[in-house]
Automatic annotation (TrEMBL):
Record key words, sorted: Phosphoprotein
Domain HTH LytTR-type: 132-238
Response regulatory domain segment(s): 2-116
Organism: Thermophilibacter gallinarum
InterPro entries, A to Z: CheY-like_superfamily, LytR-like, LytTR_DNA-bd_dom, Sig_transdc_resp-reg_receiver
TM annotation in the entry: none
Lineage: superkingdom: Bacteria
The name this protein goes by in its record: Response regulator
4-aspartylphosphate, modified sites: D53
Annotated Gene3D superfamilies: 3.40.50.2300, LytTr DNA-binding domain
Keyword Ubl conjugation: no
Pfam families according to UniProt: LytTR (PF04397), Response_reg (PF00072)
Amino acid sequence: MRAMIVDDEAPARSELRYLLEETGRVEAITEASSAREAVEKLMEAKSDVMFLDIQMPKTSGMQLAEALHRLKNPPAVVFVTAYSEYALEAFEVDAIDYLMKPVDPERLGQALDKVQARVKPQQQSHSSVERIPVVKSGRKVLVPIDQIRYIEAKDDYSCIYTDTDRFLSTISLAKLEQKLAPHGFFRVHRGYIVNLEYVEDVEVISSGILQLGVNGIEGKKISVSRRRVVALKRALGL
């Protein structure tokens, strides 16, 4: 599941991001501080659910939800607000849930259940991303995603590794994260995305930092950022 948090207050975005990561059910999270930024990011990469504050400067969350509702395939909307009086209006724009701040983890889990019930049929009906365009020896090559072990950010490029080769892609790591998250890929670090199917060992090193060993990539260890450890363990069933 891919989520976007839209709130003009940074602490509120950080708190909700933390709660979502703790659930282990959201593979990719983007943030926006305004309705305009949310639309821009939605155009760059699809989100399955938008956690939307109502009272924001210029364009309110309710106005943004009304605009999204007119899209052909809009993200599910979950309002997250400190005000209860907008609940009826929220459901008139087809909001899937309405959470009060501070967000209760159990209520957040219930909201994710509702989102999953709506998103899953849509994912099954759409053709999935099966190959990624890359550059090899000056040629465009399409690499099947099930052959990708991990992806590393390199300056303005992304390096895509299979068990036998390395390819360059001009697609940013953020966009690759959005495209590949539904296919079992996980952003373990700001510089790495890993195909969880090929994780063969998890090692705890000093200060509780995790390193991953990847099947087919001998000698390579990938560090996991501290804020992603809990979500990764849940994704791996640890």
